[in-house]
Amino acid sequence: MTRNILKISAASVAVLFALSMPSYADDAGPAYTKSMEKMNADMKKGMDPDPTKAWAKMMVAHHQGAIEMSQTVLKETKDPMIREMAEKTVKDQTKEQAMLKDWIGKHGG
User: What is the distance between the alpha carbons of residues 40 and 21, in angstroms, rounded to a whole number?
Assistant: First the structure.
C-alpha cells in the first residue's frame, strides 16, 4: 500500500508542477521526473524494520528530492517568490539532511 501512496504522491506532484509552470519551463519536466524517480527509489531503500530509522533514512532521500527539484526551478524561474522559496528549501533541507545523517550514523543506520 505504501508503494501505491508514493506513486500517487509523485504523480500528483508532477501534475501540479506541470500545471503551475509556464510553458518555457517544459524542458524542466524531465529533470523533475528524474528527481522524483530517484527520490522514490532511494526512499524505498530506506525501509527499515525500525520505524524511527526508516523515517530518518527515507527523509534523507525525500529532502534530496526537494533539493534537486528546487535547483531545477532555480534554473528556470524568474519569479521572485518562487526563487526565494526554492533557495530557502535548498538551505533548510541540506541542513536537515546533515542532522538526519548524523543521527543515522549514531544509531547504527
Answer: 22
